[in-house]
Amino acid sequence: MSILITGVLHENRIQDILIKGNHIVSIGNLAHVQADTCIDGTGKAILPSFMNGHTHAAMTLLRGFADDMPLGVWLKDHIWPIEAKMTEEDVYWGAKFACLEMIRTGTTFFADMYWHFPGTARAVQEMGIRAGLSAALFDFGDKERARQAKDQVEKLYEKYASLSERIIFTLGPHAIYTVSKDSLAWVAEYAEDKDLLIHLHVSETSTEVENCLKEHGMRPVEYLDSVGLLSPRLMACHCVWLSDHEMDLLARNHVQVIHNPASNLKLASGTFRYQPLADRGLNIGLGTDGCASNNNLDMFEEMKLAALLAKSASGDATVLPAVDAFALATKNMAAMYGLECGEIREGMLADCMLVNLNHPQLTPGHHLLSNVVYSANGDCVDTVICNGRVLMEDGVVPGEEEITAGFRACVDRLTGA
Ligand SMILES: CSC[C@H]1O[C@@H](n2cnc3c(O)ncnc32)[C@H](O)[C@@H]1O
Ligand SMILES: [Zn+2]
């Protein structure tokens, strides 16, 4: 199958783009080329689609369910009790609805950590999107729970590690306060053995640091180092409360960091220090976190918040310029997952979006990436392609009504409405 996008803005020039199979094969004047599908790119710009580095997709079910409280209370008193009632079917519809929102707002990859892994995997398969799905692991220090959790991870690995070219299987130990030292060490070994990435919440709140100091006599990143978890395999989410020594440890071990600006702000977790981490050469990506702490999956908003926070935290308006904020959501994430996407170039995977240049928030067009980062939102996205397949054209995602109905039915059942 081939797709020809004609007359689209790419790197300040009007060009044609040819996609064959799942790759971008040619960029230039392609007036002579025939393709199975033709998309008129007039008045549009092509950009790499976004990659959401940390979310819990099915938490769309809990959007607006518990707001305006700190992480500990939010998780223990509100989120975990209702999550305990969720079925695989709920997670499937929650994740499908999340995929719909992501596609509509220009995202074609998400890194997920959630319960009922098969539900999310099924949604990803059906929606045509790409994902890094982590097998969640919790044991709360209980030996029997740890045994069961590891068993479950191994079973999921057997079934999903090579199931689909669009799913990357990863490990998801939740956090140092919910996973025992033995299980964290097991995760490090298993990841090495099976060549897997690890997705973990790290140093999200000051309480996490205080408790770690009390229990282990060291700070969270030092503790992770002692357990053997620091390596380029680790995608450390949040990373809000880091000492200089912890930043050095992350850099020395080439750990990858995911910034979650909206969630950190909403839960008042603290301020991510972008510049000191960037100065150390760390690869930094961007994520929304789940819909119960954001409360949407729009990566445009996330880029803007990341840029504004970095400037404010450093007192320097030159920090995290638009082009770098865009990289957080695209090519930095692609590097993290070893995917050849995140840029529009010949030979790259055909994961891309067309934005509507006539949208007021992209007008006037002095500088496209400035507009994309500081002005636009998901509403500016017109067309989305993932792995060479059109998932949305002219703002239409096929099957949207059915997905919304299935999703609403789950929310009603879950909340007894
Ligand atoms: C094992 S499934 C993931 C688990 O994480 C919870 N969660 C969502 N957002 C956060 C956050 O910001 N910090 C810690 N844990 C979070 C989610 O509700 C699931 O229970
Ligand atoms: Zn999270």
UniProtKB/TrEMBL annotation:
Domain of life assignment: Bacteria
MF-aspect GO terms: 5'-methylthioadenosine deaminase activity; metal ion binding; S-adenosylhomocysteine deaminase activity
Catalytic activity: S-methyl-5'-thioadenosine + H2O + H(+) = S-methyl-5'-thioinosine + NH4(+); S-adenosyl-L-homocysteine + H2O + H(+) = S-inosyl-L-homocysteine + NH4(+)
UniProt-annotated binding residues for Zn(2+): 54, 56, 201, 289
InterPro entries tied to this protein: Amidohydro-rel, Deaminase_MtaD/DadD, Metal-dep_hydrolase_composite, Metal_Hydrolase, MTA/SAH_deaminase
Cofactors named for this entry: Zn(2+)
EC category name: hydrolase
Transmembrane region(s): none
Cofactor note as given: Binds 1 zinc ion per subunit.
Binding, substrate: 83, 145, 174, 204, 289
Enzyme Commission number(s) of this protein: 3.5.4.28, 3.5.4.31
Record's keyword terms, sorted: Hydrolase, Metal-binding, Zinc
UniProt domain Amidohydrolase-related: residue ranges: 46-390
Pfam families referenced in this protein's UniProt entry, alphabetically: Amidohydro_1
Coiled-coil region: none
Family: Belongs to the metallo-dependent hydrolases superfamily. MTA/SAH deaminase family.
Function: Catalyzes the deamination of 5-methylthioadenosine and S-adenosyl-L-homocysteine into 5-methylthioinosine and S-inosyl-L-homocysteine, respectively. Is also able to deaminate adenosine.
PANTHER family: AMIDOHYDROLASE-RELATED DOMAIN-CONTAINING PROTEIN (PTHR43794:SF11), AMINOHYDROLASE SSNA-RELATED (PTHR43794)
Full protein name: 5-methylthioadenosine/S-adenosylhomocysteine deaminase
Species: Desulfoplanes formicivorans
